[in-house]
Task: structure prediction
Amino acid sequence: MTVGGLRAKVRAIGDDIENTERYRVVPGASFSLLDYDPNGTKTFDGNKKESQEVFDRLNQRLEDLQELLYADGRHKVLIVLQGMDTAGKDGAIRHIFDRTNPQGVKVASFKRPTPLELAHDYLWRAHAQMPGSGEIVIFNRSHYEDVLVVRVDALVPEERWRKRYHHIVELERLLADEGTTILKFFLHISKDEQKERLEARLADKEKLWKFDKGDLAVRAKWDAYQAAYEEALARTSTSFAPWYVIPANKKWYRNLVISKIIVERLEALGLKHPEPQDLAGVTVV
Ligand code: AMP
Ligand code: MG
Result:
Protein backbone atom coordinates (compact mmCIF):
# COMPACT_ATOMS: atom_id res chain seq x y z
CA MET A 1 0.00 0.00 0.00
CA THR A 2 1.25 3.53 -0.72
CA VAL A 3 1.93 5.90 2.17
CA GLY A 4 -1.04 8.01 1.08
CA GLY A 5 -3.25 4.94 0.90
CA LEU A 6 -2.16 3.82 4.35
CA ARG A 7 -2.85 7.25 5.78
CA ALA A 8 -6.33 7.29 4.31
CA LYS A 9 -7.01 3.86 5.75
CA VAL A 10 -5.73 4.84 9.18
CA ARG A 11 -7.87 7.96 9.12
CA ALA A 12 -10.92 5.96 8.14
CA ILE A 13 -10.32 3.44 10.91
CA GLY A 14 -9.68 6.19 13.42
CA ASP A 15 -13.04 7.68 12.45
CA ASP A 16 -14.71 4.50 13.67
CA ILE A 17 -14.07 5.66 17.21
CA GLU A 18 -16.58 8.22 18.23
CA ASN A 19 -15.55 11.82 18.48
CA THR A 20 -12.89 12.11 21.18
CA GLU A 21 -14.25 15.57 22.00
CA ARG A 22 -16.75 13.90 24.27
CA TYR A 23 -13.93 13.22 26.74
CA ARG A 24 -12.52 16.75 26.78
CA VAL A 25 -13.18 18.95 29.78
CA VAL A 26 -14.59 22.13 28.24
CA PRO A 27 -13.19 25.31 29.82
CA GLY A 28 -15.82 27.33 31.61
CA ALA A 29 -18.59 24.70 31.30
CA SER A 30 -19.99 23.00 34.39
CA PHE A 31 -18.13 19.79 35.07
CA SER A 32 -18.78 16.76 37.22
CA LEU A 33 -16.86 13.50 37.20
CA LEU A 34 -20.19 11.77 37.79
CA ASP A 35 -21.07 12.54 34.16
CA TYR A 36 -18.20 10.31 33.00
CA ASP A 37 -18.63 6.54 33.08
CA PRO A 38 -15.34 4.75 33.95
CA ASN A 39 -16.78 1.68 32.18
CA GLY A 40 -17.62 3.42 28.91
CA THR A 41 -16.57 1.53 25.78
CA LYS A 42 -18.95 3.25 23.39
CA THR A 43 -17.86 2.35 19.89
CA PHE A 44 -17.00 -1.27 20.27
CA ASP A 45 -19.69 -2.06 22.76
CA GLY A 46 -17.22 -3.88 24.96
CA ASN A 47 -15.74 -5.79 22.03
CA LYS A 48 -12.04 -5.91 22.75
CA LYS A 49 -11.17 -8.09 19.76
CA GLU A 50 -12.77 -5.81 17.19
CA SER A 51 -10.86 -2.88 18.61
CA GLN A 52 -7.47 -4.57 18.28
CA GLU A 53 -7.01 -3.77 14.61
CA VAL A 54 -7.91 -0.15 15.22
CA PHE A 55 -5.43 0.07 18.07
CA ASP A 56 -2.68 -1.50 15.98
CA ARG A 57 -3.21 1.07 13.24
CA LEU A 58 -3.13 3.94 15.70
CA ASN A 59 -0.02 2.46 17.30
CA GLN A 60 1.71 2.26 13.92
CA ARG A 61 0.64 5.79 13.08
CA LEU A 62 2.00 7.07 16.40
CA GLU A 63 5.34 5.47 15.60
CA ASP A 64 5.47 7.33 12.28
CA LEU A 65 4.31 10.62 13.76
CA GLN A 66 6.84 10.48 16.57
CA GLU A 67 9.65 9.92 14.10
CA LEU A 68 8.38 12.84 12.07
CA LEU A 69 8.11 15.05 15.16
CA TYR A 70 11.76 14.29 15.91
CA ALA A 71 12.87 14.94 12.33
CA ASP A 72 10.78 18.09 12.03
CA GLY A 73 12.28 19.47 15.25
CA ARG A 74 9.95 22.45 15.58
CA HIS A 75 7.48 21.17 18.17
CA LYS A 76 7.57 19.89 21.75
CA VAL A 77 4.92 17.60 23.21
CA LEU A 78 3.96 17.16 26.87
CA ILE A 79 1.63 14.36 27.90
CA VAL A 80 0.39 14.36 31.49
CA LEU A 81 -1.04 11.17 33.02
CA GLN A 82 -2.87 11.35 36.33
CA GLY A 83 -5.16 8.92 38.11
CA MET A 84 -5.69 7.04 41.34
CA ASP A 85 -3.38 4.13 42.21
CA THR A 86 -3.88 1.23 39.74
CA ALA A 87 -5.66 3.53 37.24
CA GLY A 88 -3.18 2.35 34.61
CA LYS A 89 -0.63 5.11 34.17
CA ASP A 90 2.25 2.64 33.78
CA GLY A 91 0.25 0.30 31.55
CA ALA A 92 -0.85 3.13 29.27
CA ILE A 93 2.76 4.26 28.79
CA ARG A 94 3.94 0.72 28.08
CA HIS A 95 1.25 -0.09 25.52
CA ILE A 96 0.75 3.21 23.76
CA PHE A 97 4.43 4.10 23.28
CA ASP A 98 5.82 0.62 22.73
CA ARG A 99 6.81 1.30 19.12
CA THR A 100 8.24 4.77 19.58
CA ASN A 101 11.92 5.63 19.52
CA PRO A 102 13.47 6.06 22.99
CA GLN A 103 15.72 8.77 21.54
CA GLY A 104 12.76 11.10 21.23
CA VAL A 105 10.45 9.97 24.04
CA LYS A 106 11.11 10.40 27.75
CA VAL A 107 9.11 9.51 30.84
CA ALA A 108 9.31 11.65 33.96
CA SER A 109 7.85 10.11 37.13
CA PHE A 110 6.92 12.35 40.02
CA LYS A 111 7.34 10.83 43.46
CA ARG A 112 7.23 12.38 46.91
CA PRO A 113 9.50 15.44 46.57
CA THR A 114 13.12 15.15 47.71
CA PRO A 115 14.58 17.69 50.19
CA LEU A 116 16.19 19.50 47.26
CA GLU A 117 12.86 19.68 45.41
CA LEU A 118 11.07 20.83 48.56
CA ALA A 119 13.61 23.62 48.94
CA HIS A 120 12.33 25.10 45.66
CA ASP A 121 8.94 26.19 44.44
CA TYR A 122 6.73 23.21 43.55
CA LEU A 123 6.87 23.88 39.79
CA TRP A 124 10.67 23.83 39.67
CA ARG A 125 11.04 20.08 39.25
CA ALA A 126 8.26 19.90 36.66
CA HIS A 127 9.63 22.78 34.57
CA ALA A 128 13.06 21.12 34.49
CA GLN A 129 11.57 18.01 32.84
CA MET A 130 9.61 19.74 30.07
CA PRO A 131 10.22 18.52 26.51
CA GLY A 132 12.80 20.04 24.23
CA SER A 133 12.33 20.52 20.49
CA GLY A 134 11.29 17.34 18.71
CA GLU A 135 10.66 15.51 21.99
CA ILE A 136 7.68 13.89 23.64
CA VAL A 137 7.81 13.85 27.43
CA ILE A 138 5.27 11.79 29.34
CA PHE A 139 4.59 12.82 32.92
CA ASN A 140 3.71 9.82 35.10
CA ARG A 141 2.06 11.94 37.80
CA SER A 142 2.99 15.58 37.59
CA HIS A 143 2.83 19.07 39.04
CA TYR A 144 -0.87 18.30 39.59
CA GLU A 145 0.08 16.28 42.67
CA ASP A 146 0.59 19.68 44.27
CA VAL A 147 -3.16 20.32 44.18
CA LEU A 148 -4.13 16.66 44.76
CA VAL A 149 -2.22 14.77 47.48
CA VAL A 150 -1.03 18.10 48.86
CA ARG A 151 -4.64 19.26 49.18
CA VAL A 152 -6.10 16.01 50.51
CA ASP A 153 -3.35 15.56 53.10
CA ALA A 154 -3.16 19.29 53.87
CA LEU A 155 0.60 19.32 53.26
CA VAL A 156 0.40 23.08 52.83
CA PRO A 157 -2.39 25.42 53.99
CA GLU A 158 -5.38 25.94 51.69
CA GLU A 159 -4.53 29.58 50.96
CA ARG A 160 -1.28 28.31 49.46
CA TRP A 161 -2.53 25.40 47.34
CA ARG A 162 -5.55 27.36 46.13
CA LYS A 163 -3.29 29.83 44.30
CA ARG A 164 -1.66 26.95 42.48
CA TYR A 165 -4.44 26.44 39.90
CA HIS A 166 -3.56 29.86 38.61
CA HIS A 167 0.21 29.23 38.64
CA ILE A 168 -0.27 25.96 36.78
CA VAL A 169 -2.43 27.49 34.07
CA GLU A 170 0.13 30.26 33.60
CA LEU A 171 3.09 27.84 33.39
CA GLU A 172 1.19 25.82 30.80
CA ARG A 173 0.34 29.01 28.90
CA LEU A 174 4.04 29.91 28.81
CA LEU A 175 4.93 26.46 27.49
CA ALA A 176 2.16 26.56 24.87
CA ASP A 177 3.17 30.08 23.75
CA GLU A 178 6.71 28.79 23.25
CA GLY A 179 5.69 25.82 21.10
CA THR A 180 4.64 23.00 23.42
CA THR A 181 1.57 20.92 22.65
CA ILE A 182 0.05 19.83 25.97
CA LEU A 183 -2.36 16.94 26.49
CA LYS A 184 -3.56 15.89 29.92
CA PHE A 185 -5.31 12.61 30.66
CA PHE A 186 -7.18 11.68 33.80
CA LEU A 187 -7.46 7.89 33.90
CA HIS A 188 -10.90 7.45 35.41
CA ILE A 189 -11.50 4.17 37.25
CA SER A 190 -14.25 3.24 39.70
CA LYS A 191 -13.64 2.47 43.34
CA ASP A 192 -14.76 -1.14 42.75
CA GLU A 193 -12.32 -1.56 39.89
CA GLN A 194 -9.51 -0.28 42.09
CA LYS A 195 -10.42 -2.87 44.73
CA GLU A 196 -10.10 -5.66 42.16
CA ARG A 197 -6.79 -4.36 40.89
CA LEU A 198 -5.30 -3.98 44.36
CA GLU A 199 -6.44 -7.50 45.20
CA ALA A 200 -4.84 -8.74 41.98
CA ARG A 201 -1.58 -7.09 42.98
CA LEU A 202 -1.69 -8.81 46.35
CA ALA A 203 -2.37 -12.19 44.75
CA ASP A 204 0.33 -12.04 42.09
CA LYS A 205 3.97 -12.57 43.08
CA GLU A 206 5.12 -10.52 40.12
CA LYS A 207 2.82 -7.61 40.87
CA LEU A 208 3.38 -7.56 44.60
CA TRP A 209 6.24 -5.08 44.38
CA LYS A 210 3.77 -2.49 43.15
CA PHE A 211 1.65 -2.85 46.26
CA ASP A 212 2.24 -0.11 48.75
CA LYS A 213 0.50 -0.22 52.12
CA GLY A 214 0.14 3.53 51.80
CA ASP A 215 -2.17 2.93 48.82
CA LEU A 216 -4.85 1.70 51.22
CA ALA A 217 -4.70 4.94 53.20
CA VAL A 218 -5.10 6.84 49.93
CA ARG A 219 -8.00 4.59 48.91
CA ALA A 220 -9.73 5.40 52.20
CA LYS A 221 -9.77 9.04 51.09
CA TRP A 222 -11.34 8.20 47.71
CA ASP A 223 -14.06 10.85 47.87
CA ALA A 224 -11.65 13.60 48.89
CA TYR A 225 -9.44 12.68 45.94
CA GLN A 226 -12.38 12.68 43.51
CA ALA A 227 -13.29 16.17 44.73
CA ALA A 228 -9.68 17.33 44.37
CA TYR A 229 -9.49 15.92 40.83
CA GLU A 230 -12.82 17.45 39.90
CA GLU A 231 -11.75 20.92 40.92
CA ALA A 232 -8.28 20.59 39.39
CA LEU A 233 -9.66 19.46 36.03
CA ALA A 234 -12.37 22.13 36.01
CA ARG A 235 -9.92 24.92 36.84
CA THR A 236 -7.01 23.94 34.63
CA SER A 237 -8.53 22.59 31.43
CA THR A 238 -7.78 25.28 28.87
CA SER A 239 -7.82 25.61 25.09
CA PHE A 240 -4.01 25.30 25.11
CA ALA A 241 -3.73 22.49 27.68
CA PRO A 242 -6.96 20.48 27.73
CA TRP A 243 -7.83 17.72 30.17
CA TYR A 244 -9.47 14.54 28.93
CA VAL A 245 -11.39 12.18 31.23
CA ILE A 246 -10.55 8.69 29.97
CA PRO A 247 -12.83 5.75 30.80
CA ALA A 248 -10.19 3.45 32.27
CA ASN A 249 -11.95 0.45 33.80
CA LYS A 250 -11.26 -1.38 30.53
CA LYS A 251 -7.55 -1.21 29.81
CA TRP A 252 -7.88 -1.76 26.06
CA TYR A 253 -10.42 1.05 25.73
CA ARG A 254 -8.26 3.39 27.81
CA ASN A 255 -5.32 2.76 25.45
CA LEU A 256 -7.48 3.18 22.36
CA VAL A 257 -8.93 6.54 23.35
CA ILE A 258 -5.63 8.01 24.55
CA SER A 259 -3.87 6.87 21.36
CA LYS A 260 -6.57 8.33 19.19
CA ILE A 261 -6.34 11.71 20.91
CA ILE A 262 -2.55 11.83 20.68
CA VAL A 263 -2.58 10.81 17.01
CA GLU A 264 -5.23 13.43 16.21
CA ARG A 265 -3.27 16.18 17.91
CA LEU A 266 0.03 15.21 16.26
CA GLU A 267 -1.68 15.00 12.85
CA ALA A 268 -2.94 18.55 13.36
CA LEU A 269 0.62 19.91 13.77
CA GLY A 270 1.33 19.53 10.06
CA LEU A 271 4.68 17.88 10.74
CA LYS A 272 7.10 17.51 7.86
CA HIS A 273 10.64 16.44 7.17
CA PRO A 274 13.11 19.35 7.05
CA GLU A 275 14.10 20.58 3.58
CA PRO A 276 17.11 18.57 2.43
CA GLN A 277 20.34 20.48 1.79
CA ASP A 278 21.28 21.22 -1.79
CA LEU A 279 22.86 17.92 -2.72
CA ALA A 280 23.43 18.57 -6.43
CA GLY A 281 26.60 16.82 -7.52
CA VAL A 282 27.11 15.04 -4.18
CA THR A 283 28.30 11.47 -4.54
CA VAL A 284 29.35 8.90 -1.95
CA VAL A 285 32.84 7.63 -2.71
P1 AMP B 1 3.78 5.89 42.54
O1 AMP B 1 3.20 6.69 41.41
O2 AMP B 1 2.96 4.68 42.89
O3 AMP B 1 5.22 5.57 42.32
O4 AMP B 1 3.71 6.78 43.85
C1 AMP B 1 4.29 8.05 43.92
C2 AMP B 1 3.81 8.70 45.19
O5 AMP B 1 4.40 10.00 45.29
C3 AMP B 1 2.32 8.90 45.24
O6 AMP B 1 1.81 8.48 46.46
C4 AMP B 1 2.15 10.40 45.09
O7 AMP B 1 1.01 10.92 45.71
C5 AMP B 1 3.44 10.90 45.74
N1 AMP B 1 3.72 12.26 45.30
C6 AMP B 1 3.97 12.69 44.04
N2 AMP B 1 4.13 14.03 44.02
C7 AMP B 1 3.98 14.46 45.29
C8 AMP B 1 4.00 15.75 45.90
N3 AMP B 1 4.23 16.86 45.19
N4 AMP B 1 3.81 15.81 47.23
C9 AMP B 1 3.58 14.69 47.95
N5 AMP B 1 3.53 13.44 47.43
C10 AMP B 1 3.72 13.34 46.12
MG1 MG C 1 1.86 3.29 43.69
Summary: The chain is about 45% helix and 10% strand. Residues 9-13 have pLDDT under 50 and may be disordered. The radius of gyration is 20 Å.
